[in-house]
C-alpha cells in the first residue's frame, strides 16, 4: 500500500502516456543581438541544424535609439540607414560564422521588440525549435538581460533552447540528457522530448526528481523512483536503461550539481502552463542556465 505522502506524487497512468515518437526539428529559429551569449547560441543552432538537416531562420530585432528625456521622432531616412547597417552586419555574420552560409538561413531584420518578432516569425514559419542566448542574469540584471529569454519561454509556440554563459557547444549536443521534473506539475511532454532524443541519438539519459526536504521515513524512495519510471513511455525500449534519481534540496542547485556529475550536454525542464504566470519557474531555469555547461530545453505542457 502506498503511503499518504507518496500519493502526493501520483504514478502516471500508462494509458495516458504520450507514446514515444521520433523527435525531430525541421525548422529552427535562432535570435541574435550580436552579443557573446547570442554568438554561443548561434553556434549551437548551426550544430543542431546540421544534425537534423533543418531549415534555419536567423532573426534580429533592431531597436531605434533616441536621446534625451523626451526623444524627438527619428527621421525615416535615419531609421532606414540604421536598419541597413544591421542587415549588413547580419550578412557579414552569415559569411564569417563557420557552417552558417552553407545552411542558407532565412534572414529577418526588423524594428520590433525581440520577443514579439521571435514569436511572429515562429508562428508564421511554423518553427519547431527556438534557440536563444541568455546571460542567465538575476535580480535587477535580469530585467535587462534575461527578460527576452523569459518572455520567449512563456509565449513560444514550440520548445525553447536556452544557451547560457557557461555553455560550450559540442559536436554531440545530445550526448548526455538530464530531464528534471517535480512530478506534481511537469512531466509527460518534457519526458517525451527527453526520451525521444535519447532514443534517437543513443544518449545517456537521467531522470531527476528534486524534493525540497527529506520526506518522512514512511515515504519510500522506491515509490518515488517508480513514479519517475512512469514518465518513460512503455514503447521506449532504449530508455528503460535510463538512470532514475531522487534528490533533496533547492531545485536549481540540485539540477546544476547533477548536471555536472552526469556530464549533461542537455537539460530538459518541463513547464506547466499555469505556472508560467509568475517568475518562479523562470528563476529556477535562469539559475540553472547561469551555472551549467549544458544548454537548457524548456518544454511546456502543450503548444497551440
Structure description:
The chain is elongated. α10 links the parallel β9 and β10 (295-300). The protein has helices at 36-52, 76-96, 100-103, 114-124, 139-145, 147-155, 188-201, 221-229, 251-261, 280-291; strands spanning 27-31, 55-62, 106-111, 129-133, 160-163, 176-181, 204-211, 243-248, 266-271, 295-300. The protein starts with 26 loop residues before the first strand and ends with a strand. 38% of the residues lie in helices and 20% in strands. The chain has 304 residues and is α/β, with parallel strands linked by helices. The protein folds into two domains: 6-21 and 169-300, HUPs (Rossmann fold); 27-163, HUPs (Rossmann fold, 3-Layer(aba) Sandwich), CATH 3.40.50. It has a ten-stranded mixed sheet, with helices on both faces.
Amino acid at each position: 500500500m502506498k503511503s499518504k505522502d507518496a500519493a502526493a506524487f501520483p504514478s502516471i497512468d500508462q494509458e495516458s502516456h504520450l507514446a514515444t515518437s521520433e523527435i525531430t526539428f525541421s525548422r529552427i529559429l535562432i535570435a541574435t543581438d550580436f552579443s557573446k551569449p547570442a554568438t554561443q547560441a548561434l553556434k549551437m543552432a548551426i550544430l543542431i541544424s546540421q544534425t537534423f538537416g533543418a531549415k534555419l531562420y536567423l532573426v534580429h530585432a533592431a531597436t531605434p535609439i533616441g536621446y534625451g528625456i523626451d526623444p524627438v521622432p527619428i527621421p525615416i531616412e535615419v531609421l532606414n540607414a540604421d536598419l541597413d547597417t544591421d542587415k549588413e552586419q547580419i550578412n557579414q555574420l552569415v559569411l564569417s560564422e563557420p557552417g552558417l552560409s552553407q545552411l542558407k538561413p532565412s534572414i529577418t531584420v526588423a524594428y520590433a521588440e525581440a520577443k514579439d518578432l521571435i514569436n511572429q516569425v515562429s508562428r508564421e514559419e511554423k518553427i519547431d525549435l527556438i534557440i536563444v542566448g541568455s546571460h542567465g542574469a538575476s535580480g535587477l540584471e535580469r530585467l535587462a538581460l534575461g527578460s527576452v529569454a523569459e518572455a520567449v519561454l512563456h509565449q513560444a509556440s514550440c520548445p525553447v533552447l536556452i544557451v547560457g554563459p557557461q555553455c560550450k557547444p559540442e559536436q554531440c549536443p545530445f550526448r548526455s540528457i538530464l530531464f528534471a521534473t517535480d512530478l506534481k506539475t511537469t512531466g509527460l511532454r518534457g519526458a517525451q522530448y527527453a526520451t525521444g532524443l535519447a532514443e534517437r541519438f543513443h544518449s545517456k539519459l537521467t531522470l531527476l526528481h528534486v524534493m525540497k526536504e527529506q520526506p518522512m521515513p514512511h515515504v519510500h524512495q522506491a515509490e518515488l523512483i517508480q513514479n519517475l519510471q512512469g514518465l518513460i513511455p512503455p514503447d521506449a525500449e532504449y530508455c528503460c536503461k535510463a538512470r532514475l534519481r531522487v534528490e533533496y534540496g533547492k531545485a536549481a542547485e540540485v539540477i546544476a550539481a547533477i548536471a555536472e556529475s552526469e556530464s549533461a550536454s542537455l537539460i530538459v525542464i518541463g513547464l506547466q502552463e499555469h505556472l508560467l504566470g509568475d517568475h518562479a519557474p523562470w528563476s529556477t531555469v535562469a539559475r540553472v542556465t547561469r551555472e551549467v555547461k549544458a544548454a537548457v530545453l524548456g518544454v511546456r505542457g502543450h503548444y497551440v
